[in-house]
Amino acid sequence: xxxxxxxxxxxxxxxxxxxxxxxxxxxxxxxxxxxxxxxxxxxxxxxxxxxxxxxxxxxxxxxxxxxxxxxxxxxxxxxxxxxxxxxxxxxxxxxxxxxxxxxxxxxxxxxxxxxxxxxxxxxxxxxxxxxxxxxxxxxxxxxxxxxxxxxxxxxxxxxxxxxxxxxxxxxxxxxxxxxxxxxxxxxxxxxxxxxxxxxxxxxxxxxxxxxxxxxxxxxxxxxxxxxxxxxxxxxxxxxxxxxxxxxxxxxxxxxxxxxxxxxxxxxxxxxxxxxxxxxxxxxxxxxxxxxxxxxxxxxxxxxxxxxxxxxxxxxxxxxxxxxxxxxxxxxxxxxxxxxxxxxxxxxxxxxx
Length: 352
Fold this sequence. Notes:
By secondary structure, the chain is α/β, with parallel strands linked by helices. 31% of the residues lie in helices and 17% in strands. The protein contains 13 helices and 14 strands. It has helices spanning 13-18, 20-27, 43-46, 72-85, 101-109, 143-153, 201-213, 227-234, 247-255, 266-273, 288-291, 322-325, 329-340; strands spanning 3-9, 32-38, 54-57, 89-92, 115-118, 129-131, 185-189, 217-220, 239-240, 259-263, 278-281, 298-301, 343-345, 348-350. The strands form 3 sheets. Strands 3-2-1-4-5-6 form a 6-stranded parallel sheet, sandwiched between helices.
């Protein structure tokens, strides 16, 4: 008989991606079907994850950015999803600053018999398997490993031969026409999920211009809402793909890059999932040990001891945004050169 497991991850695009290895661990169990429940922001990432048989979307008002009220309609929507799935058990994946208990309560009320999660608070009858962060596993560990710990506590482990890195399903041929037949290129992704994690656009523009002057093709990517940003960053020197790629197509664009320059945002984890070296422009508002790109070569830039450290600020709390504005474009070029294996010659950077 097939066992059905509901894996719950209700936050953002990158958060869902880092739960991918845990999903694969559940899917590897014999006669197991994986349903995944995501929020609206994370669902596009969930659709790219290997091992997901069915995906449902539910906007959780205490996790996602939504104005929806906590009311009977919200509860009924959640219950309808669980009744459709009829899971034998649920695994609630959360980050260090989130509690699984509200969702566990709803799952229990919906009749789910076995629930696993990580909670610093006493869970009583809400969790059948409870990991205590800081006691049963360290909090200062990469988010993919945290998620795997939760899955492992529920009885699921990665199969032999799975290295535990991030992974997505995409078609390498799914590229915008601008990249058809294009040679080696660098991807610069100037957007970030919140302003406090953004390298200033003028520095992105200077980087694109400098890379182009050194003979590199630069592709600038971004969401439909970031078209003005990508146009400003690309200038006359870069290929502007702002708003032109679906998540799966963006994965293919990133997979073809020699190196990706990106902040702490969902596409950084997407780049890691396709195995590309990353120059990470990382603001220390959240800890890099947990949220830096995982499982690929990374050059981490940004003052990790800046006054905003661990503040979880969405808007930079320090005038001038020094943690990232202090990063010079030439330092980013040098990091790209190290990761991509370029050689510096007298006329600029050349491919080795």
